[in-house]
Structure formats: C-alpha cells, structure tokens
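Worked example

This section walks through a single chain of length 85. The input is the sequence exactly as stored; nothing has been trimmed or padded.
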Amino acid sequence: MPAKVTVYSGPNCPYCNRAKALLRSKGVAFEEFNVRADAQKFDEMLAKSGGRKTIPQIFINGAHVGGCDDLHALNSAGKLDAMLK
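Given that input, the structure is written out below as tokens.
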C-alpha cells in the first residue's frame, strides 16, 4: 500500500514546487492543501507541525517530515524511498 503523503503549500512558492517535483519524480501521489487560501488548513498545518509557519510542510503517513530542504535531505540520505513504500 503506498504511503499517504500530505503537502501543505501555497501558490507561487518555489520551495513547494521543488518538493512536489521530487515527489512526482518518484511517482508519489499526494494530497495538497493551499494554506494561503484556506485559514483552517493553515491552522491545521501549524498544529500538526508543532507551530512551523513556513511552506511547504510535508507529512508521510502522518509523520511530520518538515519542509522542502528536509525532504531533499531525506532523499539524499537514501531514506525517503523507504518512507514512501
């Protein structure tokens, strides 16, 4: 069963675009919420991420991964693929 990936993002965000491009390159489907357009989703992101306000905030199977740099660091360390299985 594939991992459930959630991305809290916003429009015209280069970090969001980089993170989503990495996920797409791995063939991963993800649920995306625009926190700039939906205040409730922004509040949800804050609560789930421990107060982190920057976007994107990424979750894999409910676990907080962090932002774009964190996602790329996991990939560089060879740990992302296992999380996405």
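What to look for: The longest strand covers residues 5-9.
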